[in-house]
# Entry
Amino acid sequence: MFFLLEVPAKSGMQFPAAFTAVYVVGFIAAVAIGSIAWYNSKRPAGWEDKGRPNIVPEVKAEENADS
# Structure
């Protein structure tokens, strides 16, 4: 247990910027992909007549060749 506490103390107690960047970029990507998926999904009640923003690409549903 002492070894685990000693490692951060030797590195100056600074959280690496690379880890922070990965989390920030990952969060932004998750929000962007989630927004695209939400806008391309069936509209919730009350949103049926709302238009899709121009920035969001339209994703066509794939037709299944098996059916």
Summary: The helical segments are 2-10, 17-40. Residues 17-43 form one domain. DSSP finds two helices and no strands in the chain. The first helix runs from residue 2 to 10.
